Structures are given as structure tokens and as C-alpha cells.
Amino acid sequence: MGIGTAAGAVGPSQPAMDVETASKPKRARRREWFAPFEGPFHVLWWIEEGSLPTVAEGVARLARLNTAGSSAHAFGFREIFES
């Protein structure tokens, strides 16, 4: 089993450290550019090994997390359910 996420990933051509360093000044000013977001903005769920989650599946699970709360179907980092 693996874990699915609707968040983006860092590709092999750009190490995570480079992304963190380059984005830090921009992230510090994010409150100037974005309105506060109410509700969850990420979602996790267990997937079968070898499967590839779709964006549509991530959006649907995020909507379910927002309306029904954490469950084995969709959860956040604070409450991880067994696979």
C-alpha cells in the first residue's frame, strides 16, 4: 500500500532543498497575496501499490474530507488511518 496525496511533488531535476530555498521569501509574503482559506487544503488516502491517483480523485476526496471530516476514505496529517 502507498499513500495518495493531492499535493504536488518535487521532480528529480530540482532537489527539495533548492525548492525550499528559492520559495522561502515568497512564502513569507503569502498573506499579502491570498485570502485566508477556510477548511482543509490537502488530503491523504491509501492507494494500492502500483496505482496512480488522478487529480479528479484528489479533488473528490478533498471535498469529502471537507464535508464529512476525517475517515479512512480521506484524511489529513493529524489523523492517519490504517490501510
Notes on the protein architecture:
By secondary structure, the protein is of the alpha+beta class. It has a domain at 1-6 and 40-83. It has 3 helices and 2 strands; from the N terminus they run βααβα. The protein has helices spanning 16-28, 30-33, 55-68; strands spanning 2-5, 44-47. The protein has a two-stranded antiparallel sheet with strand order 1-2. It is extended, with a radius of gyration of 15 Å.
Helix-strand blueprint:
Layout: E1 2-5, H1 16-28, H2 30-33, E2 44-47, H3 55-68
Antiparallel strand pairs: 1-2
Task: Summarize the model shown.
The protein is of the alpha+beta class and 83 residues long.
Provide tags for this entry:
single chain; two-stranded antiparallel ribbon; 3 helices; 37% helix; 83 residues; alpha+beta
Shape label: extended
Q: Count of helices?
A: 3
Question: Could you give the order of strands across the largest sheet?
Answer: 1-2
Structural class: alpha+beta
User: What would you report as the Rg, rounded to the nearest angstrom?
Assistant: 15 Å
Reported for the largest beta sheet, the result is: 2 strands, antiparallel
Helix content: 25-40%
Average pLDDT over all residues:
79
Note poorly predicted spans: none
Strand content: 5-15%
Count the beta strands.
2
Measured distance between first and last alpha carbons: 7 Å
- Give the SSE order as H and E letters: EHHEH
